[in-house]
Amino acid sequence: MTTGINAHRSEAVGHDGFAHLLRAEWTKFRTVRGWVIALGAAALAVVLMSFVSASGNRFSFCPTGPSSCTSRHLAVPTGPGGEPVTDSFMFVHQPLAGNGAVTVRVASLSGSPVGGGPNGTLRAVSQPVLAPWAKAGIIVKRDLSQGAAYAAVMVTGAHGVRMQYNYTHDAPGLPGAVAVSSPRWLRLTRIGDLITGYDSTDGSHWSDIGTAQLRGLPSTAQIGLFVASPAYFPSGSNIGNPSVATASFDEISVRGDLPADSWTGEAIGANAFYPVLSTASGWHRLSRNAFTITGSGDIAPRVGGSIFNGDTGTSILVGAIPGLIVLIVVATLFVTSEYRRGLIRVTFTASPRRGRVLAAKAIVVGSVAFAAGLVGTALAEVVAHHVLITNGNYLLPVSGPTEARVIVGTALLLAVAAVLALALGTAFRRSAAAVVTGIVLLVLPFILVYTLPAGASTWLMRLTPTAAFAVQGTQPSSPLVANAYTVTNGYYPLEPWAGLAVLCGYAAIALGAATWLLRRRDV
Amino acid sequence: MREALHAEWTKLRTLASTSWLLLSTAVLTVGVSAAVVAASSYQPFGYQDTPKLSLTGIDLGQVVVSILAVLVMSNEYSTGMIRTTLTAMPRRLVVLAAKATLLTGAAVAGGIVAVGGCLLAGRLILPSKGFTVPHGYPLLSLAHGGTLRAAGGSVLYLVLISLFSLGVATAIRDSATAVGVVLGLLYLFPLLAQVVTDPVWHRHLEQIGPMTAGLAIQATTDLHSLPISPWAGLGVLALWAGAALATGGILLRLRDA
Q1: Which of A374, A523, B164, B177 is deepest in the core (most CB within 10 A)?
Q2: Residues of A in contact with B40 (CB under 8 A)
Q3: Cα–Cα distances in Å, from A282 out to A180, A265, A292, A338?
Q4: What sign has the CA pseudo-torsion A36, A38, A39, A41?
Q5: Which ipTM value was assigned to this complex?
Q6: Nearest to A232 by CA among A481, A458, A479, A454
């Protein structure tokens, strides 16, 4: 009977005991002035680093919105839905009044990437390569301005025939590449605000690819032939080059009212920021109904990455790293200094259940790291955003919840990293080894991704604790745009929370090992 | 000085961690290099600096060297040994010089093994990844001037990193903080340089960072496009190491132990 009572009492003491334990550990932490100062320094480091990295980015986009734009400023066009888009291509066009249809045969599409050598030199490319999303076909566009509503049917470099409209909508038509031996006939019809695309392999048997509704399309719209060739990324390369594509069109026929009745060629968006070659003489009329058109550019959603000059302000990321290093040092010292001073013996005499001591330490150090991280990251986000915009950088839009996820996620990253460092310190009992292991696990992969081939970088960002930086991923991607979707451009291989879970896994394993070692060792 | 060297040599040699750390320097450096080389492949676009690629492991190896260097000093403070040391050898700068000399020797020994292993791994693995003579990539060899500079320079780089770490540890005394400061200074410059797009800032950051400037010594091609020339880069790291040692030395003289 007495044993039962004792067990009950010790359990009651245990519950009460954990609160006391937390309090004891919190007292140990807050009474070391150096550690409290270090927490503040960690938050400050996040803000300062973000400020410095933001200050080192300068461009010539409009600083405060379209109203302040001058002709010297670059501007990113926005599509009908208000989303940022790329809209640069070679357009041979004329107005079409009312309903009508355009039919054409595309007999060939070829291309090559250009440029990209060191020091801004153009590098000759050994063999012509067609960009996978090089486009040639028929387009109906509201007007000639960038970002205007459109619908188009086209042959592409590697994605067969497509019907696309308003930058984000896409439907597949006939598969396979276009060649002289297998040409493609394309047709676009306009009835009111409905545009329908058709394709055919022989010009007599047609299939319907899709219909686009372009709301508010005026009765007179621009119709014509277009060629675009987006930035080309050799496989496995982070470096994109502008590219050009050339298509030959013949058997052009137009049904409908053509008030001008003459074709004019124009490079749309050639002076806007996009890797485009100027194609001053990009079109040649071969006969009454045949053209050769050479174009560069793309008609697609805007994505991030260095070549597109697209960023969401993720330079906050480097700000987290000095904060991370400071927190790793503090969290490690939180336990190793007990070993060094012999305080650990007192601690374990007072609370013999060592696993609970470690748990209390982990909660304390995780919470303070989270608090410091949250303050630092939130401030850094505001500061970096302001500095980047003032310096004329274009920032891709990020939704409020996403922004909140980046801030809270980064604070959680710092908290879990601190717990990992604590566990390493407990396992090693030696500060230097624990600090170095923590920094090597969390920071070194980030250095390596900039020097390693893309494939190896991707695996590093999946398997190492650095995967947690995926919580800072905000760059938009699109299957309609070929890009180096790599870590160096802000694209992480894991989903945000999955990345954080990888770090949590490491921390859990380290905590488990540390608990086991604590119980097994004398001190 | 001879007695000081002898005393420090005894301390260094009789610690099991010294040989373990030197061994790990070599193993980790060669391991990372071999993995990186194995993960890369020949691309028709752009030229890969294969000697530099084969020496990527130094990024990790330098960390182990800096632990060794930090511990040489901060262990004395954490155990209280420093009082005995300074009682026996009251000329404190001689103690520091003796430690620096021995660390140089240790880093050279570990560095030669590590760098040799890296080049051997590159020589064996690179051809199977398409980096062959027909593609314009001769076998890695020390007979090639650029490769010799990259290899010898990498050993010197490790030496300077160890001296830099010793200086920081002498100034800071606590091992965790010293190691944090060393790795922070090494790693922050390359990270910052990557996110800064302004070309002038980018260049300056790479010119002043101890790691970014020092590792310029590994480049064998496209030297004119480097932010800093190879030997000047190593000179920048030497300045960092000298400044750290000077600060450490002054503090060591001025402070109570």
Answers
A1: B164
A2: 452-453, 456
A3: 21, 8, 8, 74
A4: positive
A5: 0.88
A6: A481
Whether the Cβ atoms of residue A96 and residue A222 lie closer than 8 Å to each other: yes
How much of chain B is in helix, strand and coil states, percent to nearest 5?
80, 0, 20
Residue of B nearest to A429 (CA): B176
Question: CA-to-CA distance for B206 and B185, rounded, in angstroms?
Answer: 12
Q: Are A320 and A254 in contact (CB under 8 A)?
A: no
Closest residue in chain A to residue B17, using alpha carbons only: A433
Cβ neighbours of B70 in A, within 8 Å: 432
* Separation CA A253–CA A249 (nearest Å): 11
Tokens representing B219 are: 């480049």
Count of positions (residues) in chain A: 523
Q: Which helix H or strand E contains A268, and what residues bound it?
A: strand A264-268
pTM of the model: 0.87
All residues of chain A having their beta carbon less than 8 Å from the beta carbon of residue B43 are 234, 236-237
Tell me phi and psi for residue A329, to 5 degrees: -65, -45
Which two structure tokens, joined as six digits, stand for B253? 């003289």
DSSP codes, B174-185? -HHHHHHHHHHH
User: From CA A393, how far away is CA A34, in angstroms rounded?
Assistant: 38
Beta bridge partners of A265: A92
User: At A290, which helix (H) or strand (E)?
Assistant: strand A290-295
The whole-angstrom distance between residue A57's C-alpha and the CA centroid of its chain comes to 18
Of the CA atoms within 13 Å of residue B226, those in its CB half-sphere come to 21
d(CA B232, CA A182): 60
Helices (H), A265-353: 316-341, 343-350
Q: What average pLDDT does this structure show over A142-165? A: 95
What letter does residue A85 receive in the DSSP assignment? Answer: E
Q: Which residue has the tokens 């680093």?
A: A49
Closest CA to A96 of A293, A299, A295, A253: A253
Residues in chain B, how many? 257
A101 forms beta bridges with A189, A255
Residues 105-134 of B with CB under 8 A from A: none
Determine the Cα–Cα distance for residues B28 and A437; give it in Å rounded to an integer: 13
Asked if B59 and A435 come within 8 Å (Cβ–Cβ), the reply is: no
> What tokens does B103 get?
């660390």
- Residue of chain A whose alpha carbon sits nearest to that of B78: A340
Q: What residue has token string 């620096």? A: B100
Query: What per-residue confidence (pLDDT) applies to A58?
Result: 78
* Distance from C-alpha of A75 to C-alpha of A89, rounded to nearest angstrom: 16
CA–CA distance from B108 to each of A236, B22, B114, B236 (Å)?
Answer: 36, 10, 10, 19
Give pLDDT tens digits for A293-342: 988 889 999 888 877 766 776 666 778 999 999 999 999 999 999 998 88
**Residues in chain A closer than 8 A to B63 (CB atoms):** 436, 439-440, 444
pLDDT digits (tens, 9 = 90+) for B89-146: 888 999 999 999 999 999 999 999 999 999 999 999 998 888 888 887 888 888 888 8
Task: Pick B71's closest partner by Cβ from A318, A336, A432.
Answer: A432
Closest approach of B169 to chain A, Cα-based (Å):
11
Rg (CA), chain B: 19
In chain B, which residues have their Cβ closer than 8 Å to the Cβ of A59?
197
